[in-house]
């Protein structure tokens, strides 16, 4: 990395790659590029690890893990074990959540990246022209830039919201005391995961969703399994909730619905979606275009300034879509292939799984039934209930089912699994879709008995069932019988 001074007298770095943002996307690009001996500058203005480590995936899954122990203790009686009602020490749960972040943090740390040979700058990055970024008093003129600036909570313009204290994912994991009544606005992934976790931890929870149903992105039949579980855990789920305003109240906050109903809670969590970070980076000075979906990129993840890529949650245009850590990592891999090896890449081709970590989990990949009908017309639906899986029975985890959508010739268009370990069980379906395998390939594998994975086999075997009724097949079987 050549180092001299720019016209303003700032130290000038000239690396191959300059990465803005050290979240899931930026860290992946920087680590892979450095491993190939490429000179990299990585700039982070806040905490290394970004949202996923500090205020997203990691704390949410740590909190959920704690909450699921309450459920296990409650259900232990069904196995003949008298555990009694759990005693929840919220301060220790908070310590567990923060301890989990601290345990993972060294992997994403400045020290680790410096040891890899990455030049880490702790400061806010801003483009000054089409070729230059400035951060912490240094100028960086890189061959390629990667913007991985992430997203932030999108707060809706509900009257009165700016007059009351409210939580978002950026603050909810800092709660040390157990809330009395948590009102959650938004029934997407964040809303349902947090609503169920807090409910299991003994908090009264009301979940307000404006739409007709929870988890609008998911197949309604599968989202319904999660909806049912939340209600049976005691979450007051209110879909079609139209919020008129939010008022301060003695208890904390009051959400007033259109029609006048007033829901008072001690805490309010706003989980109404995300918006890409595009401001404060001088994008205009660098000729980088944005739109409401984020930094506009093409299918190769390149921005209107061709030396710049945008990846992860901040990517818009052809890069917009599901905002997940594994998508951010996938984008990072594409940029490496294109920027380092000049290979053509195309975002949006690979099947992307998504998992909502409720109990039961909801995992899916590919098309929903409705999307498949619209695009392909004739399709077949294959289902298998966990109630008919022996391992699920032994573990008393019989809620939910597998639902696969296939063409009449057995091409897999999508799969959705609501049930225990759904996030793990979706992977063979992802592999099959990525590699163009047919559902009969999944049916033909040998599955260990008794495993939850057998639900995949059972669903796949459903595809073959009509052939047992085929008169020609039956005639052939009877002929073979006669031959002895
Ligand atoms: C509550 C919650 C739970 C989630 N759970 C999951 C899950 O279970 N699984 C999953 O796959 N995904 C989950 N997600 C989504 C996941 O967190 C994001 O998709 C992922 O963090 C995106 O990574 P990123 O690198 O694009 O952005 P981020 O992680 O947001 O990182 C961007 C970084 O850029 C930095 N930055 C921004 N501007 C500048 C600048 N000008 N200069 C320097 N630095 C800058 C920011 O400080 C930040 O550190 C969850 C999200 C939330 C909110
Ligand atoms: N398990 C996971 O992978 C996971 C977990 C959490 C978050 N995430 C990521 O974070 C993203 C953001 O999650 P999210 O749940 O905040 O957003 P979301 O977009 O998934 O859901 C937001 C919900 O809020 C509702 N809403 C919006 N305004 C409202 C209002 N005024 N009143 C009532 N309801 C309103 C919307 O109808 C929608 O259902 C997800 O899309 C996902 O990419 C992933």
Automatic annotation (TrEMBL):
Outline the extent of the Pyridine nucleotide-disulphide oxidoreductase dimerisation domain. 352-459
Keyword Ribosomal protein present in the record's keywords: the answer is no
Q: Which UniProt keywords apply?
A: Disulfide bond, FAD, Flavoprotein, Membrane, NADP, Oxidoreductase, Redox-active center, Transmembrane, Transmembrane helix
Q: Where is the FAD/NAD(P)-binding domain?
A: 16-328
Note one Pfam family from the annotation. Answer: Pyr_redox_2
InterPro entries on file: FAD/NAD-bd_sf (IPR036188), FAD/NAD-binding_dom (IPR023753), FAD/NAD-linked_Rdtase_dimer_sf (IPR016156), Pyr_nuc-diS_OxRdtase (IPR001100), Pyr_nucl-diS_OxRdtase_dimer (IPR004099), Pyr_OxRdtase_I_AS (IPR012999)
Transmembrane domains' residue ranges: 20-43
Q: Which cofactors is this protein said to need?
A: FAD
State the source organism's domain of life. Bacteria
Record-stated family:
Belongs to the class-I pyridine nucleotide-disulfide oxidoreductase family.
Any idea what this protein is called? FAD-dependent oxidoreductase
Organism this protein belongs to: Microvirga splendida
């Amino acid at each position: 990395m050549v180092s001299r001074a720019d016209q303003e007298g700032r130290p000038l770095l000239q690396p191959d790659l300059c990465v803005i943002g050290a979240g899931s996307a930026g860290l992946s690009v920087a680590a892979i590029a450095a491993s190939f001996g490429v000179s990299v500058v990585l700039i982070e203005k806040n905490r290394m690890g970004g949202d996923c480590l500090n205020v997203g995936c990691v704390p949410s899954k740590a909190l959920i893990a704690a909450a699921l122990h309450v459920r296990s203790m409650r259900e232990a009686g069904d196995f003949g074990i008298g555990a009694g009602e759990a005693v929840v020490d919220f301060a220790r749960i908070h310590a567990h959540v923060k301890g989990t972040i601290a345990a993972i943090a060294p992997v994403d740390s400045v020290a680790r990246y410096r040891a890899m040979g990455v030049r880490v700058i702790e400061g806010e990055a801003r483009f000054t022209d089409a070729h230059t970024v400035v951060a912490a008093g240094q100028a960086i003129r890189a061959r390629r830039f990667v913007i991985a600036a992430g997203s932030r909570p999108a707060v809706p313009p509900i009257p009165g919201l700016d007059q009351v204290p409210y939580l978002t994912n950026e603050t909810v994991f800092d709660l040390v005391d157990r809330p009395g009544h948590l009102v959650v606005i938004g029934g997407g992934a964040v809303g349902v995961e947090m609503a169920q976790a807090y409910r299991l931890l003994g908090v009264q929870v009301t979940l307000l969703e404006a739409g007709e149903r929870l988890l609008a992105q998911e197949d309604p039949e599968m989202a319904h399994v999660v909806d049912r579980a939340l209600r049976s855990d005691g979450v007051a789920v209110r879909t079609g909730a139209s919020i008129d305003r939010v008022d301060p109240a003695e208890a904390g906050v009051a959400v007033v619905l259109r029609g006048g109903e007033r829901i008072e809670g001690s805490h309010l969590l706003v989980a109404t979606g995300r918006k890409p970070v595009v401001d404060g980076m001088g994008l205009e000075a660098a000729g980088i275009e944005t739109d409401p979906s984020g930094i506009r990129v093409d299918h190769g993840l390149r921005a209107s300034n061709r030396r710049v890529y945008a990846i992860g949650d901040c990517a818009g245009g052809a890069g917009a879509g599901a905002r997940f850590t594994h998508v951010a990592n996938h984008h990072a891999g594409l940029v490496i292939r294109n920027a380092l090896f000049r290979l053509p890449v195309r975002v949006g081709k690979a099947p992307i799984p998504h998992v909502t970590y409720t109990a039961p989990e909801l995992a899916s990949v590919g098309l929903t039934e409705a999307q498949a009908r619209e695009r392909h017309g004739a399709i077949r639906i294959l289902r298998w209930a966990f109630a008919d899986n022996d391992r699920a029975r032994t573990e008393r985890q019989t809620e939910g089912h597998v639902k696969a959508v296939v063409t009449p010739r057995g091409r897999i268009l999508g799969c959705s699994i609501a049930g225990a370990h759904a996030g793990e069980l979706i992977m063979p379906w992802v592999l099959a879709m990525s590699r163009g395998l047919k559902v009969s390939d999944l049916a033909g594998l040998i599955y260990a008995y008794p495993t939850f994975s057998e639900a995949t086999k059972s669903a796949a075997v459903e595809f073959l069932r009509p052939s047992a009724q085929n008169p020609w097949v039956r005639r052939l079987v009877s002929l073979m019988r006669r031959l002895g």
